[in-house]
Amino acid sequence: MQKEPGLKWLFLDLNSYFATIEQQENPKLRGRPVAVVPMPTEHTCAIAASYEAKAYGIKTGTIIREAREMCPNLICVPARHDVYVRYHNLILEEFIKHAPINKVWSIDEWSCRLPPGKRTPEAAAQIAQNIKQGIWDNVGVAINCSIGVAPNSLLAKIAGDMQKPDGLTIIRQEDLPGPLLNLKLTDLPGIGFNIEKRLRRAGINTIEQFWNISPKHARKIWGSVQGERFWYWIHGYDFDEPETQKNYMIGHSRVLDPSLRSPEKTRLMARRLLTKATYRLRRKDFYASTLSLSVRTTDKRKWRRTIRLSAPAHDPFTFLQNLDTLWNEMMHNLNTFGPPPTFKKVSTLLMDLCTKDDITGDLLDENYEERLKTLSKREALSNALDKLQNKYQKETVWLGTTPKTLSGYVGTKIAFSRVPEEEEFWN
Predict the structure, then answer these.
(1) Residue at which a domain ends, from 149, 170, 191
(2) Residues 255 and 322 in one domain
């Protein structure tokens, strides 16, 4: 753990990213209130808003029906996750011309540990300006970012949030806690609703009060060592957080277009989502032992079940066969305990992942050899399909009927902590 002078971290946050990219792609949208939506309906919500829309009070999560009351001239555009990933990669390529990347936090955020010779305010500010100019010159003139520079990555992120859009804020060790004192507790990344409640129960209502407690007191409030770490980060110490063991899962879900909500079209969508998930599974050299299917109907019924395979697999055929079992069970359940379903959302999830080296056969299973032959054939066929897809950078062979969606692709979307690969959008 280190507390030493110097600016060690730079944090970049792309401003109103999805909406900005739409304005970059379509100059007619620039300077106008724009909301990015998952589907063209008044009952959906904005998943991004341009700064012109934010001026009317529209933000992520605002129902479009209400957003139009706030701003009658609001322009709604359907989300294009493939385009946002493409621009993400272009901006990353530009960024690394000027500074190394240590961590990609999300589609629109990443951090950089500044080289030892670039840790003065003047040098860090020059790097930040070079990054901004490089994005404007080589990626898009409508794309702005806010950059924060500080002794550690958390303070750099906080600094980046202080001036938007197109900001540059530097917090030096000797400035602390001054720049933080006008913030609310919940302005600090890592303090959400529950932690704020704990802090207030402990009599801590301001950043200044939190600053003046001891690290052990912070640990007690959090109920874990994370509180103590957070205290040290806020005080300017720089150290790496221990790696945590992840419980890997791979899956896809989709809120269905109105035209795809019948049982048969939803079943085809579930098959398509699962096929996409198994493709990702093979690209990562993983096998899965458990399949989950979940659905939500328009009348708000929910159903979720899992099925465990007799042996780990990563070919689509094995999982599609098990999906049929789950689907039939689900339809029987929904038809028995309610009206015939109209579906709103469907999800498939592959769990209990392992590598090939982790797989051990059950020698007491009398069908083991036959099952192994079947899996080997399915794996060979999957490899052949993958080679065709990689060669032509699109799917040339489909397993069953492919649903036609408004977005033009199925399943893949950007999650907060995962940026899809461009290959996942191949259709």
Answers:
(1) 170
(2) yes
